[in-house]
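Session log. Operator J.P. requested a structure for one protein chain; no other inputs attached. Running the standard single-chain path with token output.
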Amino acid sequence: MSGPVYLVGAGPGDPGLLTRRGAELLGRAEVLVYDYLAAPAILDLAPAGCRRIYVGKQAGCHELSQTEINKLLVEEARAGHCVVRLKGGDPYIFGRGGEEAQELGRAGLAFEVVPGISSTAAAAAYAGIPLTHRDFNSQVALVTGHEREDRPDSALNWTALAQMGALAMVMGVRNLGRVCQSLLAAGKPPATPAALIQWGTTARQKTLVGDLTDLPARAELAGLGPPALLVIGQVVTLREELNWFERRPLFGRQILVTRSREQASRLTAALTEKGAEVWERPTIATRPLPDLADRLRALDLDAFQWLIWTSPNGANFFLKTMLDGGRDARSLAGLRLAALGPGTAEALRPFGLRPDLLPRIAVAENLLEALLAAGVRGSKILLARAQAGREVLPEGLRAAGAEVIDFPVYQTVKAVWAAPLPGLPDLVTFTSASTVAGLADLIPPEERRHYPAATIGPITTRAAEEHGFPVAVEAAGAGIDHLTAAVTDYLQAEK
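Structure written below.
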């Protein structure tokens, strides 16, 4: 039985512009066939076991020809696989999706087309240029600068295009001089505003503004190449007023986030919202210990006076396993709860819990000090944490006369990167000593000085310095909001 083929528009580059239907189908993909412009964050939505096939096309460099891509889609579908063909922008707008759909139809295969946001509209909007505006134009022409190679003459009607109020052209940067000259020859006024937008909707976006006479020379001088969108018309003059994206505080910055994948999303979202390009590359992965459920089932929680969690992972794995085992929050009714830091306290909220004790600074020494002040002599304490943890807390509590049961909940293992970094980041974020050690395993010692760090807390800072990562800034507190603020303030001051 043949599998379905989904022609999915990936959007123009910003992962946030992928449609919900597109994300849903990526999560089902068994084979993912993707292009040059596909954002890594979108590719990561495919399951871990999905087979990824790169068929990217750049000017003068094609991984596979269009005929070979068509054949590949047919073969994979006939093999019974669920195939997602991920295409930049919209599959049917200058994307050859129509040709691929025709080939699938001729082969008698079922397919679905999932529209995507086209770069013709999105890149212009992210550059502060509306393609239509009542004061300037009520029509716009969408044009491609890349036509069939077997056509001796251009199919573009330059006379008609010169009469349009606005023009948006993709894949025209290599012929920019010819395009502008053709429009001038067709009667377009030389002073007509024009803009070239490279890598639209991404943190690498660059926008160059000029007019039909000087834009080609300015683009060559600036070194702007594909992928780029050319916009011509009076609407370009609105850029100064409407340019919102490039004014974000972290616009143009690349930040490496090393948190485990389970925890990275909130930090990634916060940095992305401020305009950064985030490279999410976990250096560690966390897993509940295989015997956790059995040990929790045998645990007499009524025998304890305190339950301490030292990380969000510890709280999550402990509580989820407890609930799966048939218990609920009432099992903790006789316990006082302590959490190390606001992140751990936040992890308790979905379970309807709040800590009775939260130290001012999220380090073990401060939690120990707060517990001693609360009076723990003679208490029996359950310490739920990672398999390998610092001994400051259990040793200090025992010295104060408490009985401490060290209860390992999860283990930390090295993560494997599916793809290398695209370059050197402006900043790398570390949220624990284990994330530092994880990156140190992947980056040679002599290269670590090129990875300035933003850290949470003195323990993480010390670990970064010991491994040779220069610490640029330490967050004022342990929460994601504090780290985001520290990153923003540092990079803005560095400009």
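Operator note: The radius of gyration is 28 Å.
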